[in-house]
Amino acid sequence: LFPRCSVSQVPVAEGKSVQQTVELLTRKLEVLGAEKQGTFCVDCETYHTAASTIGTQGQTGKLMYVMHNSEYPLSCFALFESGPCLIADANFDILMVKLKGFFQNAKANKIETRGTRYQYCDFLVKVGTVTMGPSARGISVEVEYCPCVIANDCWSLLMEFMQSFMGSHAPGLPSVFGTKHDSIYSPSDTMVQYMELFNKIRKQQQVPVAGMR
């Protein structure tokens, strides 16, 4: 059985760096009484349809995201933006090398988040620094309410807890839950949220920030 979970981005506090904002968040968690429970990492590599297959078969180019999550060390997740999500074993990366005639790795697009796991009562919180290459690009916060397995049973409780340390930056209902209703939550739902978060951060990097000189 898998917990209910929310993955969201927290903006960098005014006048602070990414790392300082992460420290502010984790300090709030520790004041609440949350305890450190090790570290975590979620990474994502982008693969695009090889030019040769587009040219010969008349297909439009597609992006596939191959992701790993330290919570599921024996699994590899392969996602398309519009679905589905394939859960495979860790050897899937080797298979992708063999499929390079069909999918090519966009190496410059590798993105990951890593940071500290916290336990607070029935909640598991992961605050991470999102990086592309050598530079920090944003902050991710994942919150799980561990006892709950039905997608729509505990949102108000989850929201109340997130507001206690995220304030007005607590997220709205993730889009993945719009289709879940009373079905059981699964790891792929978490990975879809991370994929959406990473893509949002990638797009933010491509747009000039208003007010920057």
Summarize the structure.
It is found in: Nucleus. The protein contains five helices and nine strands, in the order E-H-E-H-E-E-E-H-E-E-E-E-H-H.
List keywords for this structure.
single chain; 213 residues; alpha+beta; TATA-Binding Protein; nine-stranded antiparallel beta sheet; disordered C terminus; Mediator of RNA polymerase II transcription subunit 20; transcription regulation; transcription; activator; nucleus
Word description of this protein:
With 213 residues, the protein is an alpha+beta fold. The protein has a domain at 4-42 and 111-205: TATA-Binding Protein. Helices cover 29% and strands 34% of the residues. It contains five helices and nine strands, in the order βαβαβββαββββαα. Strands 1, 2, 3, 4, 5, 6, 7, 8 and 9 form a nine-stranded antiparallel beta sheet that branches. A hairpin with a 2-residue loop joins strand 8 and strand 9. The radius of gyration is 18 Å and the shape is globular. The relative contact order is 0.23. This is Mediator of RNA polymerase II transcription subunit 20. Its main location: nucleus. InterPro entries: Mediator_Med20 (IPR013921). One of its GO terms (molecular function) is transcription coactivator activity.
